[in-house]
Amino acid sequence: MLIDDLLPGDVVHLAVGDQVPADGLFISGFSVLVDESSLTGESEPVDVNEGKPFLLSGTKVLDGSCQMLVTAVGMRTQWGKLMAALTEGGNDETPLQVKLNGVANIIGKIGLFFAVLTFIVLSQGLIGQKYHEGLLLSWSGDDVLEILNHFAVAVTIVVVAVPEGLPLAVTLSLAYAMKKMMNDKALVRQLAACETMGSSTVICSDKTGTLTTNRMTVVKACICGNTVEVNDLLIPSSLSPKIPGIAAQTLLESIFNNTGGEVVINQDGKPDILGTPTEAALLEFALSLDGKYKQKRQETKIVKVEPFNSTKKRMSVILELPGGGYRAHCKGASEIVLAACDKFIDDRGSIVPLDRKTADKFNGIIETFSSEALRTLCLAYKALEHGFNHEEIPLQGYTFIGIVGIKDPVRPGVRESVASCRSAGIAVKMVTGDNINTARAIARECGILTDGLAIEGAEFREKTPKELLELIPKIQVLARSSPLDKHTLVKHLRTTFNEVVAVTGDGTNDAPALREADIGLAMGIAGTEVAKESADVVILDDNFSTIVTVAKWGRSVYVNIQKFVQFQLTVNVVALLVNFSSACFTGDAPLTAVQLLWVNMIMDTLGALALATEPPNDNLMKKAPVGRTGKFITNVMWRNILGQSLYQFTVIWYLQTQGRYIFGLEGSQSDIVVNTIIFNTFVFCQRKAKIA
Questions:
Q1: What is the reported pLDDT for 572?
Q2: Where in this chain does the record put each Cation-transporting P-type ATPase C-terminal domain (predicted)?
């Protein structure tokens, strides 16, 4: 049957390797393990059974088989809704574009008003004279030429008012930042995104792959009663001396043989680990203890394997030893495997009985590991003294080897980067598909979860719009969230709370939120093509610290454009006042249209190059974000603009009225010389204003 023929109510048989074709419910089956990473972004497989019966379209069956009752098909499935959300949003103007458009509109209206007023003031004398002489309908060539001159002055004032160099300055600043950000491991796909990150007030970050390394790792271990923190660089030196030789060999034998993973040698001669994230973490831990995978596997022969299943919650294997005899190895849920043990290997390498006190100690270690959001596994073995006749693998009588605590560790520098965001007034929220306990622990370790709330997606979805108004500002962690939960959160933050939102993500499941956000940041290494296509910036090293660098560059762009606008408006205000006042009092404008175009297009280009290419500094991240509602032209900028304008206008007006007397100018050329002096003074004043 084709997938197009499926309808709600149909029953579908699923086996290992199948992709779930529609949303449905588990009816019957065994040991079903599903990869939901395409929807949740979490790489750890999920068990599906009568207690957790939901199967979602687009996910893959990794183990087991089952029958599924189809409940939704096509665009009504979770995958369909995810694809539909990709077509929404993503075309809004950036906060800076909105503000610059507002500034340009105001300047244009002011310029047009003064131009019309100037034309009326200049023309009213001639028109009044014609009216009094009764020659209102009789116009000579000289009269028309005079009116055209007045119109030219009015056009000059419009030219003065409009900041022609502004688009050039903005483009130069964005292009310069784009090139520099590439050196800082950030590939900008949308030019406007360079500054948007500088205005961001909220970052909604994914956990796996962004805050964490997306590589499950053994971070703590309890072997022979000794608990140690495992560091990649210090494993042999810190752990090996504490493990007796017999215990170390038994541990390596257990990990290398009782596994669903495999170690292969790649083209570079380096080991590659295949298997689930948990299996890979264990194999990597064993290799770091100087374990030889191939050699250890060849020492023994695997007689029987009992794969992990959700009922027994453990995996077992029977090995035939080289000297004869058999040995069973078991690993799985710590409480269950520990309960099956009656002996343990002590710190001297001796096998001793496991009494209640020691068992309580090990249970306490398991609880400690779990409270730190570590996934714990217990390893044990049993010598089969009476041989093995292919009967069932024993369930009791094991010897305890050790406990390992596995987690996806936080990337170096993340906590400092989150603290930097907080000091810059940017709120960081974690949105993840992982369980609530792990999300809380990672969020606390990163410094994200402080005094806010951590809730699950199911609870978030049940809230009414009124309840969301109170809830969303308090949320710091959203766990077990679906792609649409993340999309909803981002949409509310942007529309209801007027925040400028940045979203990070790496999977197809993050694409709707990446498009909905003001700026989407996709991971370059772990990110899918769909996520990268939906993003504005691609983080090439998948590091949260790079996101902070992008924010710093964004703020630098914003400040540089503010500096240029301040410089440009000072030029325009002075020229407007000089030409308007001169036109009203003398009937002529000292600054011609050509001169003003030269100032705007030639001198402003150099000004734009100087002001738009200033690099960022650390002080930028100590200020509050501008956000969506902040003023683009601040009070300090108005003070500088008006102060410089008043000073320049006073100097130029003094030259215009007293210039002939100061320089002793006479004759028909005196006006041209004075206007030339005024123009040069005007240009030098702009240089002074730019330096100031």
A1: 81
A2: 589-686
Cβ(532)–Cβ(522) below 8 Å: yes
- Do 65 and 108 lie in one domain? The reply is no
Helices (H), 258-399: 277-288, 293-299, 334-339, 356-371
Q: Are 20 and 61 in contact (CB under 8 A)?
A: yes
CA distances (Å), origin 476, targets 202, 233, 314, 436, 513: 11, 33, 35, 12, 17
Between CA 236 and CA 259 the distance in angstroms is 22
Residues 517-548: pLDDT tens digits? 899 999 888 788 888 888 899 999 888 888 88
Interatomic CA distance for residues 491 and 501, integer angstroms: 9
Do residues 206 and 215 make contact, with C-beta atoms less than 8 angstroms apart? no
Pair (563, 645) in one structural domain: yes
- 74 and 37, same domain (yes or no): yes
* pLDDT tens digits, one per residue of 228-255: 887 654 455 456 666 788 888 899 999 9
**Taking CA 251 as the corner, what is the angle to CA 339 and CA 388, rounded to the nearest 5 degrees?**
70
Clarify whether residues 355 and 229 are in a common domain. yes
Mean per-residue pLDDT, 27-49: 80
Cβ neighbours of 449 (radius 10 Å): 20
Active site residue 604: no
- The whole domain housing 34 covers 3-85
Q: Which residue from 645, 640, 677 is spatially nearest to 658, judged by alpha carbons?
A: 677
In whole angstroms, give the CA distance from residue 407 to residue 405: 7
- Among 23, 35, 206, 408, the one annotated catalytic: 206
Tell me the C-alpha to C-alpha distance, in Å, between residue 634 and each of 162, 213, 467, 517, 637: 20, 41, 36, 26, 5
In DSSP notation, 653-688 reads HHHHHHHHHHHT--STTHHHHHHHHHHHHHHHHHHH
State percent of the chain over pLDDT 90.
22
Amino acid at site 357: K
> Which pTM does this prediction carry?
0.76
